[in-house]
């Protein structure tokens, strides 16, 4: 799996500006047991470099995408991260290997409950999962050093930008549902200025929930 991830990084390096994983992200990808996060009948395919269905119309992301999005956050050991879209909990586990605290929001209650139980069973006690609409973030735990969104939004949610610390980074797929989207890097400077950069085309399930206003 790691070899396939590195191969994909080589192919996309000119778009994303990264041609290899940093040691702590590489170690996180090696340590997290992906087979624990997929349905029983798909365990033989757990270490293939592709997304897999996890039920409720959701997927566990391709390992390359998980590694790339984690890498783009430039996480430090003391960082606090917000994840939007817990899903199976796999991305949260990778983040938990790289950061001090991970807060994750999942809109589907059954997935949120299963992911939290799974993460605790695997020893990830620095991950807190709640059920909710991730578009609005987690104001009570803000601000965050980094924010990662694992479902495609039609626009960058203003509440998430607001909850990002000065000097922080957000990675989010942006685009219409079930069409071409773009993985987007959002940076907030120390004085609060926000910049965005489209990196490469991607395909994510849509960010679902209530009314959204750009």
UniProtKB/TrEMBL annotation:
CDD domains: AdoMet_MTases
Enzyme Commission designation: 2.1.1.77
Localization of this protein: Cytoplasm
Biological process (GO), any one: protein repair
Reactions mediated catalytically: [protein]-L-isoaspartate + S-adenosyl-L-methionine = [protein]-L-isoaspartate alpha-methyl ester + S-adenosyl-L-homocysteine
EC supergroup of this enzyme: transferase
Signal peptide from the UniProt entry: none
SUPFAM superfamilies (alphabetical): S-adenosyl-L-methionine-dependent methyltransferases
Taxonomy, superkingdom: Bacteria
Pfam family, one: PCMT
Keyword field: Cytoplasm, Methyltransferase, S-adenosyl-L-methionine, Transferase
GO-annotated cellular components: cytoplasm
GO molecular function, a single term: protein-L-isoaspartate (D-aspartate) O-methyltransferase activity
Matches recorded under Gene3D superfamilies: Vaccinia Virus protein VP39
Main localization of the protein described in the UniProt heading: cytoplasm
Protein family per UniProt: Belongs to the methyltransferase superfamily. L-isoaspartyl/D-aspartyl protein methyltransferase family.
Stored PANTHER family: PROTEIN-L-ISOASPARTATE O-METHYLTRANSFERASE, PROTEIN-L-ISOASPARTATE(D-ASPARTATE) O-METHYLTRANSFERASE
HAMAP family registered for this protein in UniProt: PIMT
Function as written in the Swiss-Prot or TrEMBL entry: Catalyzes the methyl esterification of L-isoaspartyl residues in peptides and proteins that result from spontaneous decomposition of normal L-aspartyl and L-asparaginyl residues. It plays a role in the repair and/or degradation of damaged proteins.
Name of the molecule in the record: Protein-L-isoaspartate O-methyltransferase
């Amino acid at each position: 799996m790691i070899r396939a991830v590195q191969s994909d990084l080589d192919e996309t390096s000119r778009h994303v500006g990264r041609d290899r994983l940093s040691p702590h992200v590489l170690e996180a990808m090696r340590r997290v047991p992906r087979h624990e996060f997929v349905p029983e009948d798909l365990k033989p395919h757990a270490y293939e470099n592709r997304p897999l269905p996890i039920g409720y119309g959701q997927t566990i992301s391709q390992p390359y995408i998980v590694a790339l999005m984690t890498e783009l956050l430039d996480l430090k050991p003391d960082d606090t991260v917000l994840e939007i879209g817990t899903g199976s909990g796999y991305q949260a586990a990778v983040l938990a290997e790289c950061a001090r605290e991970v807060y994750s929001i999942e809109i589907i209650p059954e997935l949120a409950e299963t992911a939290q139980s799974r993460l605790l069973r695997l020893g990830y006690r620095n991950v807190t999962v709640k059920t909710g609409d991730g578009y609005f973030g987690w104001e009570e735990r803000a601000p965050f050093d980094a924010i990662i969104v694992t479902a495609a939004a039609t626009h960058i949610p203003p509440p998430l930008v607001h909850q990002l610390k000065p000097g922080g980074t957000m990675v989010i797929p942006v685009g219409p549902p079930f069409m071409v989207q773009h993985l987007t890097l959002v940076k907030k400077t120390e004085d609060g200025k926000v910049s965005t950069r489209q990196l490469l085309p991607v395909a994510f399930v849509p960010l679902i929930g209530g009314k959204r206003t750009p």
